[in-house]
Design a protein that fits this description.
The structure is a single chain. The chain has 16 helices and two strands. Helices cover 77% and strands 1% of the residues. Strands 1-2 form a two-stranded antiparallel sheet. The chain has a single domain, classed as Growth Hormone, Chain: A. A hairpin with a 2-residue loop joins strand 1 and strand 2. With 394 residues, it is an all-alpha fold.
Length: 394
Amino acid sequence: MKKNKRIFGYPRNIFFTGLTSFLTDTSLKMVYSVMPMFLLSIGASKTSLSLIEGVAESTASLIKTITGFWSDKIGKNKPFLLIGYGLSAVIIPLYSLVVSPIQVLILRFVERVGKGIRTAPRDSIVAGSVENGETGKSFGLQKAMDNSGAILGPLIAFILLSAFKDNYRLIFLLAGIPSILGILVIIFGITEAKKNKESLVKKFRFGDFSKKFYFFLAIVFIFTLGNSTDALLLVKANEIGIKVAFIPLVYLLTNVVSVLLSIPVGSLSDRVGKEKILIVGYIIYALVYFGFGASSHIVVIASLFALYGVYSAATDGIQKAFVSDIVDENKKGTGLGLYNALLGITLLPASLIAGILYDKVNSHVPFYFGAVTALIAAVLMFWFQRSFKKQVVE
């Protein structure tokens, strides 16, 4: 059957979902890799920069839960992908027209609504298409494809900035092209991961999810509270002497490392346990953020961006794979929606805390704060592993 066809060793849906993410992330990272510098150039403060990111993510986060549950209820995911990715394709070129930070906030909000619509159904398609229990490997591919786009996007931005100095608007305009190609991949490449009608979710109830699931969400909340927008990392890099044109390349370094490691680390998590990999990921994050707070040397900061890629490979896709493992088959969209919504909602206080600390205290404190919350999350994850080690993964 068509849905069982494998491409490069992966089920068809998983491969084409990853390809869609690659194309869309190429577009988005062309924009995001220069957006902090663009916002500062039109009068935004570091606090307002963080606020824009936090509000855009958080106010759209409830949608992730709604669409995750809705996709479980009707047994379809593809329409949500078309609408969600379609919104991004429309919004991205419009950044070329903005003249004030508030306009960026409005566009970011609408674009993030698109992400809210598509994220949980997309992850549900991946979870529903997994074969042989390879959730870590499958979500690892998704992360690797995301970050491949996050490599190509900043690289294109760097080339354009080098050829057309400070012409951010040209980058925003051209960034729309890959996202349009991503829509075509959805239309022609992705099929529904069909569900049995008798097993479809009829009503949302918090009691349908286990204590294990909610304990894990609590750990994710604490970790994310110190995991503010990456824009502040780019601002710090610029402030210590890395030129604006080279900022996209620094961001690219993170994503190169993440791409190289996401699939191997995902496969490793399927064998040794995702909890162990997450503990390591949280500890690496703490080291990276402590380093950003303590150092002002270009070589050290560049090295930390590379280590940040190791954290990304050991955490982002693994957390989603773990959620997929510990929720029931017919509730994966809802569970992943709750997880993604928590991330988005927590980003608002996280970004506000980091931005205010950066502007009102000094540039070191927000990174130390992130290091502390990550260490707390690592300790709690160790406790989680010991508490549930005798339970069989659902």
